[in-house]
């Protein structure tokens, strides 16, 4: 994970300008979420270790171009 974080650049949250964080879910996907408003990208799945970096970069790319989902109401 540390190696991946060095390779991936995250911009600020496209909705609120808060800090984005790359998250890995259960060793099968990556997504980026905002610490402030809870906006997040779709989950980008990977099947094997060799695909992890690509999945992480794809999640970061979605984030950086503003393709994020709004947080669910009440969450
Ligand atoms: Zn935000």
Structural topology:
Elements: H1 2-7, E1 20-25, E2 29-34, E3 44-45, H2 52-64
Antiparallel strand pairs: 1-2, 2-3
Zinc ion binds next to loops.
In short:
By secondary structure, the chain is α+β, with helices and mostly antiparallel strands. The chain is 25% helix and 19% strand.
Characterise the protein shown here.
The chain is an alpha+beta fold and 75 residues long. A 3-stranded antiparallel β-sheet has the order 1-2-3, with helices on one face. The protein has one domain (2-64). It is globular. Helix content is 25%, strand content 19%. The structure holds zinc ion. Residues 13, 15-16, 18, 34, 36-37, 39 line the site of zinc ion.
Using brief descriptors, characterize the structure shown.
75 residues; alpha+beta; three-stranded antiparallel β-sheet; 3 strands; 19% strand; binds zinc ion
Rounded to an integer, what's the Rg over CA atoms? 12 Å
Q: Averaging pLDDT over every residue, what do you get?
A: 94
Look at the helices and sheets and give the structural class: alpha+beta
Instruction: Name the hetero compounds present.
Output: zinc ion
Beta content comes to 15-25%
Query: Main beta sheet: strand number and arrangement?
Result: 3 strands, antiparallel
Number of helical elements: 2
- Estimated helix fraction: 25-40%
Low-confidence stretches: none
| Number of structural domains | 1
Given the C-alpha coordinates, what overall shape results? globular
Question: What is the terminal separation in angstroms?
Answer: 27 Å
State the total count of DSSP E strands.
3
Can you list the strand order of the major beta sheet?
1-2-3
SSE string, helix = H, strand = E?
Answer: HEEEH
């Amino acid at each position: 994970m540390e190696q991946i974080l060095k390779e991936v650049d995250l911009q600020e949250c496209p909705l609120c300008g808060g800090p984005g964080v790359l998250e890995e879910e259960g060793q099968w996907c990556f997504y980026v979420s905002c610490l402030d408003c809870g906006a997040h990208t779709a989950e980008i799945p990977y099947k094997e270790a060799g695909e992890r970096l690509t999945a992480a970069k794809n999640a970061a790319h979605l984030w950086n171009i503003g393709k994020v989902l709004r947080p669910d109401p009440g969450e």
